[in-house]
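worker-03 picked up job from queue 'complexes'. Input manifest follows; two sequence lines, order preserved.
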Amino acid sequence: MAIVSFNSPHNPTKSHYHQHPPPQPLSITTPNSNPTKTPSIRAHLSQLCQEGRPDIARSLFNTIPRPTTVLWNTIIIGFICNGMSHEALCFYARMINSLTPVNPDAYTYSSTLKGCANTQQLKVGKALHCRILRSHSTVSTIVGNSLLNMYSSCLNPLSRFDLVENVFDGLRKRNVVSWNTMVGWYVKRGLFVGALKQFKLMMEMGVRPTVVSFVNVFPAVVAMKDTNNCDVLYGLVVKMGSEYVENLFVVSSAIFMYAELGDIDSARVVFEVARERDIEVWNTMIGGYVQNDCYAEGLDIFLRVLELNDIVPDTVTFLAALTAVSRLQRLDFGQQVHSYLLKNSMIVPVIISNALIAMYSKCNLVDTSFKIFEKMEERDIVSWNTMVSAFVQNECDDEGLMLVYEMQNQGFRIDSVTATALLSAASNLRNYRIGKQTHGYLLRNWIQFEGIESYLIDMYAKSGLISIAKQLFEKNCVNTKDQVTWNAMIAGYAQNGETDQAFTVLRQMLEQNEKPNSVTLASILPACNLSGGVTVGKQIHGFALRHSIHGNVFVGSALIDMYSKCGAIVSGEMVFHMTPEKNSVTYTSIILGYGQHGLGGKALSLFQIMLESAVKPDAVTFVAILSACSYAGMIDQGLQIFELMESEYRIPPTPEHYCCIVDMLGRAGRVIEAYEFIKNLGNEGNVAGIWGSLLGACRIHGELELGKFVAKKLFTLNEGSGMAGYHVLLSNIYADKGMWKSVDGVRKGMRDEGLRKESGCSWIEIGGTVNRFTAKDKKHPQFDMIYAKLENLAMDMKIAGYRPIARCTADGTSELED
DNA sequence: ATGAATATTT
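worker-03 finished. Artifact:
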């Protein structure tokens, strides 16, 4: 089996030396042997360099009393070909300052200039340029080309002054290399039209293009998305003959060109035309498929590479394969790639480990990601960022924050990627302090990146500082509002329950001719639930249909949710069946809807259909189906599904699942069983919600003693927001039993602790207007008529023989039930 | 003995 090889940054395999025949045996020379000694010393030095030992060649060189220019050149070239450009430059400095004067020649200049290009030493390059101009009346084409190349790699491509062009204009003789370098330079400067013009000019001058000419001009048409000229250029390649069409450089860059332009079929044709393929051709083809979201096809090609005996997959191959695996969330495949790597290579490069971390994270196995991260001997900023993002994306925001802390301890600085993860964590945790700190850090360090405003708006809105979000939206994004920014603001208002504001922003968005997309609609739809009216939701649905975005999974799921929350479960059902693409959220929405409408049987049969489909249920799906079972009293089925969740689907239960089970048992009167269930959970069951469900059950079934015990337990847990509700529940239990003294006691306790239950509210939509009511409120413009009608109704009910049961609520108002 | 050139993770 082939051993996996990985590229090192300075891969010498492409140096010219390795294209030469294998080294000849040494010829030993003595200092005074004969006049031919110089060429043989030169051959010896050159051979040492070919063997990758230029330092030894230098030591040998140091023993030579009066080295000639040729010998100096040999060492300089030797260093350059071994990726030691810095040493080459030092050696050049030694040469011109030598006590035994030697004159640099064209070889010295071209190789030293290459050294400058490799190390970005503009000053040395300029000094060389001066020296060349001073010492020679004419500049040879090769030296001129070396100057062109040096300037094109050392100069800032965005600078207004174009020294490269000056040198090119000053060249007395140009050849195809000069033209190619110019085309490359234009591309680097972003002057794509210029690059293409230069290429055309070269053709018009009768210069025959080489493969490099094509490789250099392709990126220009890619950048311009110029599919026409792309075809013209490739046509030219075909015309030039098989030496061009089958050249590995041409094949690889043509595949890349077509793939970048979205024409993956043509890329495949180019790939098939190549009779011989090296690993880079294979990599480009895999990468092309990944780039075009054809992950399965990419993996097919990857598998073919593994089967080849003469091609060894490298870092890039595995990187592309892992990207495809991540996008497909094909964990099985990813694990195979992982074990292949472990089996076949000594060390896994950092970049591959990073991709593995990302892959496991995308497959929701963040623990495995962290194991890989922990085991890494070396980590770069991408490793840290990937792991932090992995935590944040898998709902482990606290771990993500801790890791950022640790990362800074180890000398890595927060960058734009870390910041996006931090902002996401802040908005997930609804923690504006972390968000503000991150915002401050970005401002202090002048860190800017694309979409920064949307991240900030999202964070401030979700963490409750909607006014700051609004300020950012209005001040910082005056002219730069894009779809994402608009969406962030709309979602922000919608999530804060500010429905009117959300719709105002949507209207502004439409007025400014910015098109809403699926994200916009999926963000605004939940606001329709809150507003209580189905009319607005229907309008959004109509909008989605008109703009052909109703087929989107997210929009579909949001529509289902909206209809079912507005009581229109039949419409929700229809949307479900008409949504072409269904994911776990789509299924969960409709199951939840069925459950809330008491349609347990329908929920259950749809859940069965889901299990048989390719869509995997997630933790939320189980909450939906369990609560549906609970509402419908389908206890046995519910318990069975709960078993299945852990054993079959490997989803660890959360407090929400436990709540469902307790609720399910409790509603059915199996209160003691529910209590036993919580006891068995141990410390994991010490969550207010779970005990709260049990307290609810105690009330329904009049379990006074257990209720008192459960309430006591709840009050020790003291989890804030819901506590008032639990006090009210306890007082209701007492009230049901007519124990008014105890009721008073609970209410006094609540007053002492400053607890107040938020009053319940109901609403109804009439003629497109939503009317909200809370107990005893007089805000409605027609409240007097409404109360008069209520009294009439109450009278009618009394006459009909109805006896309401009066129960006490915490704020002293009476509540009519049953 | 010298010059131009392709693929990559958050």
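worker-03 released lock.
The longest strand of chain A covers residues 761-766.
Strands of chain A lie at 761-766, 769-774, 805-808, 814-817.
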